[in-house]
Amino acid sequence: MSTIETLFQRLWDDYNLLVGQPGRIKTLFEQRGDRPLLDHLALRGFGLTGLGVDALAHPFLEAGYRKAATYSFDQKQLDGAHFEPPHASLPLVFISQLRVERFSPWLQERVHALAEAVPTSVLGSGHLCCAGVPWPKVSQADYQRLMQESEYAAWLAAFGFRANHFAFLVNSLPSFSGLAEVNDFLRSHGFLLNSSGGEIKGSPALYLEQSSTLAQQVEVAFADDTTSIPSCYTEFALRHPLPDGRLFTGFIEASANHIFESTAAGQK
Ligand code: NI
């Protein structure tokens, strides 16, 4: 395996160890005779030096990925970018970061305290994307208070740097007629879907249709106690050909805005 394939495997293994859901879904697809491919990996960061999009993108750029487009999510105070791989066998990478300076002095102070606790060995590793939680555990009260201002900030404080989600490429699932049938199949196996903005975000006219599960609830040890909170989810992307025949490889801001909410409510 190449270095970048090893990195994807490490992120996938960590993600499955935490939630189990994507591996179970992959097996269900394989049992139908499909050979599911990944569409993209999504990572989250803080818009602070060394903890944002640029730092998270580092190993992907080294492997030949290039930044293809940038995105703004003003409602959630996030900026994002997507990175395209050097060859089609690798997934796209979508990375976002929180505009920390747009929040209350309390949140800014709390997030800066987390940032200052990150060891220089992590900052200099070039592999921030799989560093996990590089700061002391937050308290449940701080988690709840972060949640009130930014669900994204609360998620990042609790789970750190790891895959937020992987998305399967629905084009690689020929046993399904489309995304609606994938959604029905997931529901029949007990998965809850994110219905913010409708179960299917986007349309063939926008060249991209997406859906996602609700994040799985997992037990997290906080500084004071252990409790169950929403963790990671699984996404499904159906890409349509552009007028020139190539598949669309970008993202739709309005759809991604709803997909972010998959970690707002969890599934047992
Ligand atoms: Ni996604």
CATH class: Alpha Beta
Q: What's the total number of strands?
A: 11
| Approximate helicity band | 25-40%
Q: And the CATH topology?
A: 2,3-Dihydroxybiphenyl 1,2-Dioxygenase, domain 1
The main sheet comes to: 8 strands, mixed
Strand content: 15-25%
Question: What is the typical, i.e. mean, pLDDT?
Answer: 95
Bound compounds: nickel (II) ion
Question: If you had to describe this structure to a student in words, what would you say it looks like?
Answer:
The protein has 268 residues and is an alpha/beta fold. The chain is built from nine helices and eleven strands. The chain has helices spanning 3-19, 21-31, 53-62, 105-116, 120-123, 140-149, 151-159, 179-188, 253-259, and strands spanning 37-46, 66-73, 78-84, 92-98, 165-169, 201-203, 208-212, 215-221, 226-230, 233-239, 266-267. The strands form two sheets. The protein has an eight-stranded mixed β-sheet with strand order 2-3-4-1-5-10-7-6, sandwiched between helices. A three-stranded mixed β-sheet has the order 9-8-11, with no helix packed on it. The protein is globular and about 50 Å long. The site of nickel (II) ion has 7 residues, from strand 1 and strand 5.
